[in-house]
């Protein structure tokens, strides 16, 4: 029996960690007890950057990485952060089936890893200490905590906000005290960390998706037999799809649980309202061939 | 004989002199690092409240400066023998045995540093590292990683100097 | 075998950080997993690449500036000016000045060193026994790492991924309880000692004149505690801003600091930071290799089989850490033990990581005052020339007071989250 290790940065309760646990549960059955999987959540083995290096040398066998950090290895993955490309999580999940999404996974091979598929966190929204957002003017010079990676930075800088790096653990007190005016966040994290207690207005902007990529070390992959690869892929696909389903359900459950606790608004036509920022993103990333194919195919898939 | 009067050129004295010169350079680098990140953080606070625009890369860069400071500072502390250990038992040994123990310990440390040097050279040159970048600025990160092999070399020199150092000549630094 | 090599190497006097790295090598060799060594340089680099850890050199530097710039002395003088008419004013002044200092400095050793030099001679002049005076001073140093800011709490926050601001807030109430207990103990001991303790002569200068510099110095804890509580700064930023304030006070305002004193301040900062940062680095490498081989998971399963009760678990942890702290430096022990114990505490027993962190930190800090190895004892004994065995006995009541506070933290978790 071969024991494989999978690492991720999300804490134990997070859907992504549950996806990894689900793989660990089914892999022995799928592989006829040839393979087992040990899960290392919460960055026990290091940051995502560090885990990428460990995958490269074959120390670590697999990881569920954010698309954000993965896009530093395979630039086409930045296409996932095209603003207003997806209506909701199910639309993003549909786009994961496109040929261009597969091309992105193939591009990861140059970083020494095999991309096997995607699962998703919730859509990104904007939570403010005070008030709702109607236009980007409401965000000018506001201190917003974002996930600091190039694609998201490009968009937020074009909005005119001041992207402010703060650890997720310090966001609660940062909002409470005014160190932060707002955050770019998904609803799972918002509800999980009780940010509604220290913020006044949640604007459902739906501006970006937030995928995770399941990667396997090339060294591990080439060391597996055909049957082992098939078993691993089967366990992975089932768990990733399950995770996406959980996330789709969580999105509406989260909104329902926030109802009455906090003022909730929507930006209905964000495509136009945030037009300038969206154009800035397109200017920076639209020239990448895979990204432009991905955008086209994702729009087709949505129709 | 003290560091200042050491002028002749036997191999062992060259090593001791090298260690002393090296640590002088390292002290300057370490001071610059500390002043550097105190300045960077303070300016960042000022920018946030006075200009309303924090420096996006300030935290990431300051953290990298801390790594540099850490490696340089550790090397200095090895030269100064300032790292803490449990000397409860060793202090009870007679002089010659204590010296023998000290040499043995330093030989182990030198061996560890040699292995780390080898591993860190492999690491800095590995294809994976070529992808690493400072996220907020987009700079290549491998030049920053060079501090690890550099540290292994300087620390190795300081430790070997301690092995060669004549009995009785200590760098007791009372800071 | 791995555990044995750890103990043997520890006994040779090898720096603890290298003991950890060497033990890692032995472990990987025994487990036939030497290729894992490839990851060591990367883990070492990543281990200190954390913005929050910057607070460590910064708070070390702040302490150095406080002492070099005469700011510590001014706090002592200001407290003294107001208490000259009170019976047993000097023991009181000692504790109050230590409390004020604790709100600025992050470690006990720096605080014990400077207070032993400043206060013990004054108390002796006023007729208090040298042993008694030194014991109070060494014990009051324990307030340093409990009242924020605190190096050990920063390190716990980084390892446990808990907000450092939360850790700082959590230290306040237990620190104040400890202060109150120490105050009671000190006064009780002073009153039993009939030959001393008449009010000392008033200092020549007026109260206002003596207390103004002290009040100005109290700007610094205001910047730190206020800045963090109201969220104006992160803990790291508050340290940098406090350094700037301390430089201005010590330099242009009080004129005790000159450009010439800066290199020495920087060198001491670098040296003290080197010890802590190397320990963090080595413990991270050690911990990573253990985690990779699922050792903490096995330890967790074993501990969980001993008891189901979180309170009993915490008391067991406390007792074993008291034993560890007798021999090992507190910060070293913290960064070795927490990655193993914390997951058990939170996942198996559902203990609040903040409460666990305060309990562990307070327990390990006690090691400073417990023989045979205790930096606090050594420093105070060396400066005041009191034998270590005698000093250990004299501080024992204060150590017990501290144990009492740790029990309060275990039994009444609200003290760590009062607001
Ligand atoms: Na303190
Ligand atoms: Na001790």
From TrEMBL, chain B:
Domain Tripartite ATP-independent periplasmic transporters DctQ component: residue ranges: 38-165
Transmembrane segments: 28-49, 61-79, 100-122, 142-164
GO biological process: C4-dicarboxylate transport
Cell location: Cell inner membrane
Keyword Plastid: no
InterPro entries, A to Z: DctQ, TRAP_DctQ
Gene Ontology CC entries for this record: plasma membrane
Top-rank taxon: Bacteria
Presence of keyword Protein transport: no
Main location (coarse class): membrane
A Pfam entry, by short name: DctQ
Entry similarity comment: Belongs to the TRAP transporter small permease family.
Its biological purpose: Part of the tripartite ATP-independent periplasmic (TRAP) transport system.
Subunit record text: The complex comprises the extracytoplasmic solute receptor protein and the two transmembrane proteins.
PANTHER family reported for this sequence: 2,3-DIKETO-L-GULONATE TRAP TRANSPORTER SMALL PERMEASE PROTEIN YIAM (PTHR35011:SF2)
Protein name per the record: TRAP transporter small permease protein
Organism of derivation: Marinovum algicola
Taxonomic lineage from the root: Bacteria, Pseudomonadati, Pseudomonadota, Alphaproteobacteria, Rhodobacterales
UniProtKB/TrEMBL annotation, chain C:
Single GO molecular function: transmembrane transporter activity
Locations listed in the record: Cell inner membrane
TRAP C4-dicarboxylate transport system permease DctM subunit domain: residues covered: 5-414
Regions crossing the membrane: 6-31, 43-62, 92-114, 135-160, 172-191, 212-233, 239-258, 270-291, 311-344, 356-383, 395-416
Residue stretches in coiled coil: none
Membrane-topology descriptor: Multi-pass membrane protein
Annotated InterPro entries: DctM, TRAP_DctM
Keywords, comma-separated and alphabetical: Cell inner membrane, Cell membrane, Membrane, Transmembrane, Transmembrane helix, Transport
One Pfam family, short name: DctM
Source species, domain of life: Bacteria
Any one GO cellular component localisation term in the record: plasma membrane
Membership in a protein family: Belongs to the TRAP transporter large permease family.
NCBIfam families: dctM (TIGR00786)
Function of the molecule: Part of the tripartite ATP-independent periplasmic (TRAP) transport system.
Oligomeric form and interacting partners: The complex comprises the extracytoplasmic solute receptor protein and the two transmembrane proteins.
Protein name stated in the entry: TRAP transporter large permease protein
UniProt lineage: Bacteria, Pseudomonadati, Pseudomonadota, Alphaproteobacteria, Rhodobacterales
């Amino acid at each position: 029996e071969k024991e494989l290790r999978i690492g991720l940065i999300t804490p134990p309760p997070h859907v992504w960690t549950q996806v990894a646990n689900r793989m660990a549960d089914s892999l022995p059955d799928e592989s006829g007890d040839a393979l087992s999987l040990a899960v290392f959540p919460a960055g026990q083995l290091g940051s995502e950057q560090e885990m990428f290096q460990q995958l490269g040398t074959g120390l670590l066998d697999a990881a569920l990485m954010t698309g954000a950090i993965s896009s530093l290895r395979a630039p086409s993955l930045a296409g996932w952060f095209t603003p207003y490309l997806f209506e909701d999580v199910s639309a993003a999940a549909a786009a994961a089936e496109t040929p261009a999404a597969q091309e992105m996974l193939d591009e990861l091979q140059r970083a020494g890893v095999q991309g096997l598929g995607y699962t998703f966190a919730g859509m990104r929204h904007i939570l403010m200490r005070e008030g709702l957002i109607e236009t980007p003017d409401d965000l000018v010079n506001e201190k917003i905590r974002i996930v600091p990676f190039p694609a998201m930075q490009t968009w937020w800088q074009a909005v005119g906000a001041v992207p402010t790096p703060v650890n997720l653990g310090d966001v609660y007190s940062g909002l409470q005290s005014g160190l932060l005016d707002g955050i770019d966040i998904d609803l799972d994290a918002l509800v999980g960390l009780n940010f509604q207690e220290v913020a006044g207005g949640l604007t459902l902007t739906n501006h970006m998706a937030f995928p995770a990529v399941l990667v396997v070390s090339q060294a591990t992959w080439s060391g597996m037999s055909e049957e082992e690869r098939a078993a691993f892929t089967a366990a992975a696909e089932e768990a990733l799809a399950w995770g996406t389903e959980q996330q789709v359900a969580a999105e509406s459950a989260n909104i329902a649980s926030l109802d009455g606790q906090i003022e909730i608004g929507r930006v209905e036509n964000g495509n136009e309202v945030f037009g300038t920022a969206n154009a800035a993103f397109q200017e920076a990333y639209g020239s990448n061939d895979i990204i432009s194919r991905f955008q086209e195919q994702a729009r087709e898939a949505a129709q | 004989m003290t560091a200042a009067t050491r002028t002749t050129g036997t191999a062992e004295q060259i090593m001791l002199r090298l260690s002393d010169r090296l640590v002088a350079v390292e002290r300057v680098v370490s001071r610059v690092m500390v002043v550097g990140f105190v300045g960077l953080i303070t300016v960042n606070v000022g920018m946030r409240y006075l200009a309303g625009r924090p420096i996006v890369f300030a935290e990431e860069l300051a953290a990298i400066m801390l790594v540099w400071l850490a490696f340089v500072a550790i090397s200095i502390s090895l030269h100064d023998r300032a790292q803490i250990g449990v000397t409860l038992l060793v202090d009870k040994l007679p002089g010659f045995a204590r010296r023998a123990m000290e040499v043995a310990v330093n030989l182990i440390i030198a061996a560890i540093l040699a292995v780390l040097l080898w591993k860190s050279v492999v690491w800095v040159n590995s294809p994976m590292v070529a992808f690493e970048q400072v996220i907020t600025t987009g700079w290549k990160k491998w030049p920053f990683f060079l501090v690890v092999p550099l540290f292994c070399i300087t620390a190795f020199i300081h430790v070997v100097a301690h092995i060669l150092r004549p009995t009785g000549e200590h760098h007791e630094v009372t800071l | 075998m791995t555990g044995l090599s750890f103990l043997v190497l520890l006994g040779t006097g090898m720096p603890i950080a290298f003991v950890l790295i060497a033990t890692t090598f032995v472990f990987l060799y025994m487990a036939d997993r030497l290729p894992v060594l490839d990851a060591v340089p990367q883990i070492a680099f990543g281990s200190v690449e954390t913005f929050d850890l910057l607070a460590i050199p910064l708070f070390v530097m702040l302490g150095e500036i406080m002492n070099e710039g005469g700011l510590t002395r001014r706090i002592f003088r200001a407290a003294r000016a107001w208490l000259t008419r009170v019976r047993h004013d000097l023991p009181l002044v000692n504790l109050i000045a230590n409390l004020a200092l604790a709100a600025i400095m992050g470690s006990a050793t720096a605080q014990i060193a400077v207070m032993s030099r400043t206060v013990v001679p004054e108390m002796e002049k006023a007729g208090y026994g040298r042993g008694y005076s030194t014991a109070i001073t060494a014990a009051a140093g324990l307030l340093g790492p409990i009242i924020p800011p605190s190096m050990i709490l920063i390190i716990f926050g980084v390892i446990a991924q808990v907000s450092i601001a939360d850790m700082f807030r959590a230290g306040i109430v237990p620190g104040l309880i400890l202060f109150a207990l120490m105050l009671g103990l000190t006064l009780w001991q002073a009153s039993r000692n009939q030959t001393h303790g008449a009010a000392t002569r008033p200092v020549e200068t007026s109260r206002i004149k003596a207390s103004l510099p002290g009040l100005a110095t109290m700007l610094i804890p205001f910047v730190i505690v206020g800045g963090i509580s109201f969220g104006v700064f992160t803990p790291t930023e508050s340290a940098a801003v406090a350094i700037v304030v301390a430089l201005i006070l010590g330099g242009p305002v009080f004129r005790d600091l000159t450009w010439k004193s800066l290199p020495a301040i920087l060198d001491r900062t670098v040296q003290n930071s080197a010890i802590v940062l190397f320990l963090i680095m080595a413990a991270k490498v050690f911990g990573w290799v253990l985690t990779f081989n699922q050792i903490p998971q096995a330890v967790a399963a074993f501990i969980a089989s001993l008891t189901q009760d979180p309170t009993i678990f915490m008391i067991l942890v406390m007792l074993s850490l008291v034993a560890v702290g007798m021999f090992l430096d507190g910060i070293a022990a913290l960064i070795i033990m927490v990655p193993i114990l914390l997951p058990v505490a939170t996942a198996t027993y559902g203990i609040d990581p903040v409460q666990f962190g305060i309990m562990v930190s307070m327990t390990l800090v006690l090691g400073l005052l417990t023989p045979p190895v205790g930096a606090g004892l050594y420093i105070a004994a060396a400066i005041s020339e009191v034998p270590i065995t005698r000093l250990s006995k004299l501080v024992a009541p204060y150590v017990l007071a501290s144990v009492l506070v740790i029990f309060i933290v275990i039994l009444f978790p609200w003290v760590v989250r009062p607001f």
